[in-house]
Structures are given as structure tokens and as C-alpha cells.
UniProtKB/TrEMBL annotation:
One GO location term (cellular component): cytoplasm
Stretches assigned to coiled coil: 159-186
Matches recorded under PROSITE patterns: FN3, PROKAR_LIPOPROTEIN
Descriptive protein name: Fibronectin type-III domain-containing protein
Keyword Coiled coil listed: yes
Residues that span the membrane, as ranges: none
């Protein structure tokens, strides 16, 4: 079975103190107190912290850290105030601890945290379990004041290849994120996606527990590195990886452990109810490519417990001592709901389920043992559709029927591979999902009774297993040769699209030779974007052109009214017109569409508030130059500009809409002045005509 746990021995927990003859002698001089030396495992605190006594170093307790093979444990601090302090600041502590570790810092000053020897393990455990991607810490210890018990420093030791392993794991996580896109997936789908990933790509590590090494730390069989890089792990690795990705995807989750069963798995919350998910026990220990059970997927605790008892007489108590911790988002309550245990498309499926473009593809036994069926399911409408059926018998070496379907599937992009006892075939999901092509026939080499029993990932390879027994204790292995990433050559247009019919373009993969035909849309005229501008004669319109157009249709609406065609402009190169039938103070919205005898193009609307032209008049008076104008419709005010001689115009006055004159007293005899009055409303301006006068 798949369960591993590592407990610290008393030898690892003990306080490490180094004594030498000189130190013992010094004990007398210091009245029985033994000072710590920076070079030893005890360290002298610096002068800024002289209020502390001598510091002792103690190995950190890792029995609750999942990456170290630990299990969920309860807080052992007997002082409730200390436990409360640790809980209240857990996020702050988590950020600081993980931040230091990610920088490979050897030591972290925690003087101000209020940590003690009674709660420090809980704080470090909480931080580490919240970041299962941190897999490169070999061990940790802490320095504490022997008088007060307060922890001053956390110390971290790292695996020899820590930086390299961090980069490798980061790359592996990025690859998973590339393969599994949970956008638009429902919560149950997201959980299923990562369940299938784990059961199809990871082999359970049956090598046995490894002894703790103070230099290299725990073996990677307990963590995400083992799962994603080495593709081999025990239950803690499965549970941590599931938890990590579910949290990233926003699904409330936690980790459950049982010391009696010596095992770790997950809990998830969907629709406000908790469920258990055990990807490890759904992944047969004797790893056979393509096998994935769903007996422990989204089940209640009662179901989980009863299945555990039935699994082995060694577990007759079930998972009675289950503890749930590391809960993200919410508080775990007993999982009692059983809605996913019946009537779901995965119920009874014993092979990996694959996702593509909104559908989940599965293979299972039909109504009779000699029949199989391939189904696709949509979470959107809840419909499970059979797309392909077949008949096949798996025979034993003596010719008797095994009365069970062992067919397996593997999805490589658009190709859905599946196997019968003798054939490997594939369905092109892009072309016809109800037609299959056989590509391998093992009867060319093997006699009846030797069958295909596995197909899928084994390590980083996609393989086919041929054996004379379903357990595959004896087997021959072959590469499937599936193309996992197409490299498309430049496309060849096989049919040119027109304005009335679609075209097509053919692409070929240079890796595998697969070809695909892509439909080219009918030709479309360009979308026309119109620009507007107020002029003295009306609103000027300009737009982009399309040489394939016969002309352009100009549509206008006034205010919030309906659009109406105001002009048809012929000629593909014509790009402007002036709408003279406008009235100041109104907003007009325009659309211009290119057209020809086949179609009409799209358009983007543009609105324009119209303000007419203001004509200025300038007249000498004894008091200065008087500028006057008539009312301009749509104007909320006027800006009066003045230029002296050949100088530059400057705004000299802004007046309200009711004002019609302006007296400029700042003039000199014999000097020429030019004026214009700009009508405006907000940021919209009308046009104007200038007036000049030589002051006498």
C-alpha cells in the first residue's frame, strides 16, 4: 500500500551542546554558566541584544512538515497564549520564513516575534506546509535564550543542489500550468484535472523509507520535486502537489492524515461541502500506464473509511484517527455529502480521463464484458455521450475469457489513442470522432493470450505494455510515438476564400507528419472608422478606405434616435464628405460602412456635438477696440483671442453665452490688432472668422 511516514527520533530532537576541557574549566570562572561561542553550535548574541542570556541551538521538529514525510499534528504548546500568538501572526511569519528560504538565507532574526521553544515548531511547520514548493531545505534549527526560552534566530540548512532543484521544480510547475488550463472549469472539474494528472504521470515510490541525512535532508519521495521532476513519490508528495495546484486554482482544500493507516490525502470544498480525494490510493501501487481508479474521488468520510477497511485486514479500524490541517480558505467540517459517489461519469472508470476543449473523454466497459465504449462528457450541460463502441475479448494464455475490459486511452492533442487486446488505434477528434484507425497489431508478433494491458506515461515516456497477465509482472514495452507538440510548417492555401464562400488552408507538422485543414473565413470588407470635425459649413467626416469597395454608405442619428442613411458615396478611394444639414446645439453620431455587390463591411461609430461658426467684428472706439459677434447656436460660452501685429494669438477673455461684445482697452494708436471669437461647450469648439483693425 502507499503510505510512508517519518518520525523524528529523540536523538534528532536533543539539544546539541559541545563541551571541551577549556569550556568546563570556564564554567568555574563564570559561576557555573557556560558561554556560547560563535564558532560552535552555540552562538554568542551580538551586543544590541545583550539583554538576552546565553543562546543554545536545538534541532527543529519536522514531524509535522509534509515535505519531510510528516503528518498533520496538533499544536503541542501547552501555553494557550503562546499558541494564540503564533496563530494570530501566522501569515506574517509565513511570509518572512518563506521569503528567507527562497533567498537561501542561512539565518533569520525572529527576536521580535515572541516565539518560544514551545511554539516555534508550529510556526515553522505552518509556513512550510503552506508552501510545498519549498523542497530544498535539508533541516532547520533555532537559537533560544536558555533562561527565558525565547527564540532569537531560525537557522536553515539547504540541500547540496538546492538552487538547481528549485529551478527544475519551477520549470516543472510552469509546464503543468501550460498543460492544464483551469479557466472556465467548474470546481469539480479542476479537482478532476489534477487528480488525473497525478494518477497518470506519477508512479508510487515503493523503494521504502529513507533514513534522514543531516546534509541532504529528506528524500524527494515526500515532496513536489519527487512528483513533478522525478515522477515518483509517496502519499505526502501526491497530497502536497494536489493542495498546491488546487490553492492556485482557487478551490478550498486541505490535507488529511492518519497515523493508523500511515497515509496522507486531500480534502476539498465544493459548493460549501467537504469531500475527500485520495489520488494516491486511486493510483495502483503496481504502476501500470493508463490505470487510474476513481474509488476515492470526491467521497464522504464514511465511504472513505469503509473502503479503507475493505482494502486490507490490516486497516480494520479504517481512518478513525484522521486529522485535517493545512486548510486553505474556510474551516473543515466532517465530509458527509455523497452526491458524487453515484451517477457521475467517472464512476466505474478505471482508466485515465482526458480533457480537451470542454469535454472529458473516458473509456470503460460496456453493458457486457466483451464490449467497450468511449464517452465524452460536458460539465456545462451534464451530458455524457458515447462516441465510439467496440467488441473485444481479453483472453488468458489458456484461451479462457478474462471477462473484463482492459482497454486504455491516451490523448495527444487531437489524437485520442485507445487499445484493445491486440490493436492500438486512434480517433482524430478534429475530423471525425466516430471513426478509428488501427495503427498497431500485436498479433503480428504475439499469440492469443498475450495482450495489451497498459498505455500511457511511464516516467517521461508514453509507452505500450504487452503482457500475458493483467498485472504485467512480465511485459514487453514499446513507445507509442505520440506527438505531444506539433510544429506546423507554413500553411498552403488549397482554396482561396471569396466574399461569398469560405476557403481552406493546409498545415503539416514537421515532427509527426500530421496534417490539418483550417477553414478560412469569407472575405470581409474593412471596418471603417470615421472621424468628425466641426466646420463653418457643417460637420466634416473622414474615414479609411478599402480598394475592394464599390463605395461607402454614411449613416447618421440625431441624439438617441435611430440611424438613417444620409448619403451613398460611390468610389473606393473617396474618403470624406461634409454634412451640411446639421443644427448647432445637437449631437450627431455617424457610421460609415464600405460596400460592394456581395457584402457590407463593419463600422465604428463617432459622435460630434455641433457648434457653428462665430464671425467677429472689430471697431475703433474712443475707449479702445470693441469686438462684437452674433449668437452661435450650441455655444455655452466664447473664448476671445487677440494678436498684436504679426505676433501670436493669446486668449484674453472667456465670457458666457449671453455676452455679445468685448471692449479691449489695452491698445495703442497706430497698432494693428487681429481678433477671433471661438465658441465652445466643454471640450468641443466651433469654428470662427477673424477680424482686424488698426487702432487710431
Amino acid at each position: 500500500m502507499k503510505y510512508e511516514n517519518v518520525r523524528l527520533t529523540e536523538a534528532v530532537r536533543r539539544i546539541r551542546m559541545i563541551f571541551v576541557v577549556g569550556v568546563i574549566a570556564a564554567c568555574v570562572l563564570y559561576g557555573g554558566k557556560i558561554p556560547a561561542f560563535a564558532e560552535d553550535t552555540q552562538e554568542q548574541y551580538d551586543s544590541s541584544q545583550s539583554s538576552y542570556g546565553q543562546l543554545l541551538e536545538q534541532e527543529g521538529d519536522t514531524s509535522g512538515i509534509l515535505q519531510f514525510g510528516g503528518q498533520i499534528i496538533e499544536d503541542e504548546a501547552s501555553d494557550s497564549s503562546e499558541a494564540s500568538l503564533a496563530a494570530a501572526n501566522s501569515k506574517k511569519y509565513e511570509s518572512a520564513i518563506v521569503g528567507a528560504v527562497e533567498k537561501f538565507s542561512p539565518r533569520l532574526n525572529v527576536k521580535s516575534w515572541g516565539l518560544t521553544t514551545r511554539n516555534v515548531a508550529n510556526v515553522v511547520t505552518t509556513a512550510m506546509n503552506a508552501h510545498p514548493e519549498v523542497v530544498y531545505v535539508a533541516r532547520y534549527s533555532y537559537l533560544y535564550d536558555q533562561t527565558t526560552g525565547k527564540v532569537v534566530y531560525l537557522k536553515f540548512s539547504y540541500k547540496p543542489n538546492a538552487r538547481t532543484e528549485k529551478k527544475q521544480l519551477d520549470a516543472a510547475i510552469a509546464e503543468v500550468n501550460k498543460q492544464i488550463n483551469t479557466k472556465n472549469m467548474k470546481p469539480a472539474e479542476i479537482v478532476l484535472a489534477y487528480h488525473e494528472f497525478l494518477t497518470s504521470t506519477v508512479a508510487y515510490d515503493t523503494s521504502g523509507a529513507k533514513e534522514f541525512d543531516p546534509t541532504t535532508g529528506r528524500d524527494h519521495m515526500y515532496d513536489m520535486y519527487g512528483v513533478l521532476v522525478k515522477r515518483s513519490s509517496v502519499c505526502q508528495g501526491y497530497a502536497e502537489t494536489m493542495w498546491y495546484f488546487l490553492r492556485k486554482a482557487g478551490v478550498p482544500c486541505g490535507v488529511a492524515t492518519s497515523q493508523y493507516v500511515n497515509h496522507a490525502w486531500n480534502v476539498v470544498n465544493i459548493g460549501g461541502k467537504w469531500y475527500h480525494v485520495d489520488a494516491t490510493w486511486d493510483d495502483p501501487a503496481s504502476d501500470i500506464p493508463g490505470r487510474s481508479m476513481h474509488d476515492y474521488f470526491l467521497v464522504s468520510f464514511d465511504t472513505l473509511n469503509s473502503k479503507t477497511k475493505a482494502a486490507s485486514s490490516d486497516y480494520y479500524l479504517g481512518r478513525y484517527d484522521t486529522k485535517v490541517g493545512n486548510v486553505w480558505k474556510g474551516t473543515y467540517s466532517n465530509a458527509t455529502d455523497k452526491r458524487y459517489e453515484k451517477g457521475q461519469f467517472w464512476n466505474g472508470v478505471e482508466k485515465v480521463i482526458f480533457y480537451r476543449k470542454g469535454y472529458w473523454y473516458s473509456i470503460k466497459q460496456g453493458s457486457q464484458s466483451s464490449y467497450y465504449q468511449i464517452n465524452k462528457y460536458s460539465f456545462t450541460n451534464g451530458v455524457n455521450t458515447t462516441i465510439f463502441t467496440g467488441q473485444d475479448e481479453w483472453l488468458d494464455t489458456d484461451g479462457t475469457a478474462l471477462n473484463k475490459q482492459y482497454g486504455t486511452m491516451f490523448l495527444a492533442q487531437e489524437k485520442l489513442y485507445f487499445c484493445t487486446s491486440r490493436y492500438v488505434a486512434w480517433i482524430d477528434l478534429e475530423v471525425n470522432e466516430r471513426k478509428a484507425w488501427a495503427i498497431y497489431d500485436i498479433r503480428q508478433k504475439y499469440v492469443s493470450g498475450v495482450n495489451i494491458y497498459g498505455m500511457g506515461y511511464y516516467g517521461n515516456d508514453v509507452v505500450i505494455w504487452v503482457s500475458d497477465t493483467p498485472s504485467c509482472t512480465r511485459k514487453d514495452a514499446y513507445y507509442l510515438g505520440a506527438c505531444m507538440s506539433h510544429k506546423w510548417q507554413a500553411g498552403e492555401v488549397t482554396k482561396q476564400p471569396t466574399f461569398t464562400s469560405q476557403g481552406s488552408q493546409k498545415y503539416k507538422c514537421s515532427n509527426c507528419g500530421y496534417t490539418k485543414n483550417v477553414t478560412l473565413d469569407k472575405l470581409k470588407l474593412a471596418t471603417v472608422t470615421v472621424k468628425t470635425k466641426n466646420t463653418g459649413k457643417g460637420i466634416s467626416l473622414t474615414w479609411n478606405t478599402d480598394s475592394r469597395a464599390t463605395g461607402y454608405k454614411v449613416y447618421r442619428r440625431t441624439g438617441k434616435g435611430a440611424y438613417r442613411l444620409i448619403k451613398t458615396v460611390k468610389g473606393s478611394s473617396v474618403r470624406s464628405m461634409v454634412d451640411r444639414s446639421v443644427v448647432g446645439g445637437k449631437t450627431y453620431t455617424y457610421r460609415v460602412s464600405a460596400y460592394n455587390s456581395y457584402t457590407k463591411g463593419g463600422s465604428k461609430a463617432k459622435s460630434q456635438y455641433y457648434i457653428g461658426c462665430t464671425t467677429a467684428r472689430a471697431k475703433n472706439t474712443s475707449q479702445g477696440v470693441r469686438v462684437s459677434w452674433k449668437k452661435t447656436k450650441g455655444a455655452a460660452g466664447y473664448k476671445i483671442y487677440k494678436k498684436t501685429g504679426s505676433g501670436r494669438f493669446k486668449c484674453v477673455k472667456v465670457v458666457k453665452a449671453k455676452t455679445r461684445t468685448y471692449l479691449d482697452r489695452r491698445v495703442k494708436s497706430g497698432t494693428k490688432y487681429t481678433y477671433f471669437v471661438k465658441p465652445y461647450k466643454g471640450k468641443t469648439a466651433g469654428t470662427y472668422k477673424k477680424a482686424s483693425v488698426k487702432y487710431r
